[in-house]
Amino acid sequence: MRANRSLFLGLFCALATAILVHGQSQTGYISIDCGKPLNEIDKDSVSGIYYAFDDDFIANGENLNVSEEYNYPKNLNLPYVLADLRAFPQGNRNCYSLKPSKAKDKLYLIRASFMYGNYDGGVNQKPLPEFDLYLNVNFWSTVKFKNASEQVHKEILTYAESETIYVCLVNKGKGTPFISGLELRPVNSSIYGTEFGRNVSLLLYQRWDTGYLNGTGRYQTDVYDRIWSPYTPVSWNSTRTSSYLDVFQSGYRPPDEVIKTAASPKNIDDPLEMFWTSEDPNARFYAYLYFAELEKLERGESRKIKIMWNGSPVSESPVVPSSMYSMTFSNSRAFTGKDHWISVQKAADSTLPPILNAIEIFTAQSLDEFSTAVEDVHAIENIKATYKVKKVWSGDPCSPRLYPWEGIGCSYGNPNHRIKSLNLSSSGLQGPIVLAFRDLSLLESLDLSNNDLQQNVPEFLADLKHLKILNLKGNHFTGFIPKSLMKKFKDGILALSADDQNICKSRSCQDKKKNNMVVPIAVATSVIVLLVVLVIIWIILRQRKRASRVSKEFQVEAELLLTVHHRNLASFVGYCDDERSIALIYEYMANGNLQEYLSSENAGDLSWEKRLHIAIDSAQG
User: Fold this and answer.
1) What's this model's pTM, rounded to 2 decimal places?
2) Both 214 and 350 in a single domain?
3) Is the residue at 530 inside a domain?
4) Distance of alpha carbon 127 from its chain centroid, rounded?
5) Which of 107, 295, 337, 486 is deepest in the core (most CB within 10 A)?
6) Over the range 122-150, which residues count as b (16 or more CB within 10 Å of their CB) and which as e?
7) To 10 degrees, what angle do helices 507-561 and 483-490 make?
8) pLDDT tens-place string over residues 483-497
9) Same domain? 30 vs 106
10) Would you state the pLDDT for residue 15?
């Protein structure tokens, strides 16, 4: 009776636990069936997981399906999320934005799934696609395929550095990137520890369900939704229990279906051995081994396990599995090198052979790349949202360095990268220039030309202390260029380009225009004055030359008059010739010359006798 009661309580606890786990398992999950049509059912009938559409996580890409030969109903075992995909023919880098609640500093398992499935009909015409996967700003892995039906899963454990986690697909010129499924699972932050703490991410190398007995590999009782691959070599035995087994005291929480089976060597004295070779001799490996005693040991029996790596003990003390209780063992220092050999051996004083329920192997990947400063990210995201920028802008603006956002230039430093140039020319921007531009405090070059920007050119652009180039041409501004910007322009600090109607309506611009006219006016005036002076000099010289010629002619005539003598002519005394005047000098005539005498008012009438006498004398010369 007491035994039946215990059995009933055990079954009740197991059932209650299963219901509780199933109810809580999807808390905090983000599950995306990439490329799924909007009218399809969003629940996977096998895993019970609800999947979301892409559109809430990424704006770019095309939704497509794998070809019929790889899809339902010809492929009945095809996982739910692999039947369709989202491809990214545009842009070098396309990123999904995952925003779990209060994500920063929490540990997450992130899994990306891929199956080519000849979705583009190119399986026999071109090489299979190959592209890179990035987590935030750091390289994650390269995605490539052996054949069109291969299912590729990339999984990583990482701490969130901010409230948003970016998963990015990068086109490296070897085919169009695509993705079939993307999943995020919250993980207990106290597990999967390494000597490097949070400075590394853990990339899944292998996750084996040792002692596997006809399982599915993915279980609703696994709160972390891990995928367990079977691994039972022919030299191993498999053991299973149906009894209740406590997995809740361990933060690793392996699913019942995995921990209730175990592998042991067929030969009691043989070890359980696992081998692998790393392509990178500097890779750092961490192994997490799961143990649970599935048998009720008799008096005098013991199971003590020694764990070795490449012939050296990993721990000084042997591992003793607890009865019906899950425990996890891991190496405190990384396994490094090219060839790796883990051996789970029977300790010298153990009466029973070694067992192993499961094992996970990860490689540590350093988080070496820096991200863009938060204030710059917020500013550029604000600009993107305000103007609905139609560019492939996703993920970090500056990193990875080879793939910054289109139109953005960055300065790369420690601890953060900064945006130093922004080219939004001909980008369809409408409305006023928003305040977010001022938050790009280290901006050196800003090109907003050929858009539909309106209202006034804002004064706050002058607050960008490092701005050297500003192009505002081809917009519809109604206000004036601010004096502060024009001053920087006049001082040679800023290279400013704007439409004439904006610059020339500004008082500062008018002053500058007047100042600019001084030089040509002065030059023109000088030329005119010089011409006038030259003309005057020419006239003076000409007059002098002419006067000299007249003076010589006068002198000749005057000297000729000196030789003339007549009783009816006044005596010629001499002549005067200076620079101002010329004159002839005669003897004094009391009655004046003939003209004066004849025209005088006092002169009387001439008699006919005098007139005749004058005529005769004139005729005689």
Assistant:
1) 0.76
2) yes
3) no
4) 30
5) 486
6) ebeeeebbebbbbbbbbebbebbbeebbe
7) 50
8) 999 999 999 999 999
9) yes
10) 42
Looking at the structure, tell me whether residues 362 and 385 fall in a common domain.
Answer: no
Same-domain pairing of 474 and 580: no
Whether 162 and 215 map to the same domain: the answer is no
- Cα–Cα distance measured from residue 231 to residue 354, given in angstroms and rounded to the nearest whole number: 16
Handedness of CA 544, 546, 549, 550 (dihedral sign): negative
Whether residues 294 and 265 share a domain: the answer is yes
Q: Which two tokens stand for residue 515?
A: 């100042």
Q: What share of the chain is helix, strand, coil (3-state, %, to 5)?
A: 25, 30, 45
Contacts for 329 with CB less than 8 Å, ≥ 6 apart = 288, 289, 291, 307, 315, 319
Q: Is residue 366 within a helix (H) or strand (E), and if so which, with residue range?
A: strand 358-366
Averaged pLDDT for residues 375-392: 94
Among candidate residues 271, 290, 269, the one with its CA nearest the CA of residue 226: 290
Does one domain contain both 361 and 218?
yes
One domain for residues 274 and 343:
yes
Reported residue count of the chain is 621
- pLDDT classification of 21: cutoffs 50, 70, 90: very low
Flag whether 10 is in a domain. Answer: no
Torsions phi, psi of 7, nearest 5? -65, -40
Cα(491)–Cα(306) distance, integer angstroms: 78
Phi, psi dihedral angles at 11 (to 5 degrees): -65, -40
Here the CATH number for the domain that contains residue 407 is 3.80.10.10
- Considering only CA atoms, which of 398, 383, 419, 502 is closest in space to residue 454? 502
To which residue do tokens 């010739």 refer?
Answer: 577
Number of structural domains the chain divides into:
4
Judge whether 517 lies within some domain. Answer: no
pLDDT in tens, 81-137: 999 999 999 999 999 999 999 999 999 999 999 999 999 998 887 899 999 999 999
Q: Among the three residues 452, 480, 505, which one is the final residue of a domain in this structure?
A: 505
